[in-house]
Design brief:
CATH class: Alpha Beta
Radius of gyration: 13 Å
Distance between the termini: 15 Å
Order of helices and strands: EEEHEHEHHEH
Number of helices: 5
Strand order of the largest sheet: 1-2-3-4-5-6
Largest sheet: 6 strands, mixed
CATH superfamily: STAS domain
Length: 132
């Protein structure tokens, strides 16, 4: 299993082809620089193909709107589909931030869906795993 850790996120590729991004160290604020580090690491773990990504945002720190902009601008580079694993706290913050960028998010070519259960997210994401 290939994995990379950044200060805010642990990334690894599951055997079934789904890439997992797990928020860690919530005391570190998300900035444009930390998001760039995460997106570089995501590209490294994904390799040459775009992968379905399960992003567990339940333990992420608050981020600036600029950091969300960097994420949205780079997400299509390595992501085939994005399943966001949320809880009530993460959902409220995430939805507030997504609403600020709704025209950009709506224009993404990457399918995005919110989930409260990991198994449901993985089942949906497996539909986007490419042939190896």
């Amino acid at each position: 299993m290939h994995s990379v850790d950044t200060p805010t996120t642990k990334l690894y590729l599951r055997d079934d082809g789904v890439l997992v991004a797990l928020g860690i160290n919530p005391e570190i604020p998300r900035t444009t620089e930390t998001v760039d580090l995460v997106m570089d690491a995501l590209a490294e773990v994904a390799g040459e193909e775009r992968r379905p990504v399960l992003w567990d945002v339940r333990n992420l720190s608050a981020g600036s709107l600029d950091s969300v902009g960097v994420f949205v601008a780079r997400v299509e580079e390595s992501v085939a589909a994005l399943g966001l694993l949320i809880d009530d706290g993460a959902a409220a913050e995430l939805l507030t931030r997504v609403e600020a960028f709704s025209p950009i998010v709506d224009a993404l070519l990457v399918p995005v869906q919110l989930f409260r259960e990991e198994a449901e997210a993985v089942a949906w994401l497996q539909e986007f795993v490419g042939p190896d």
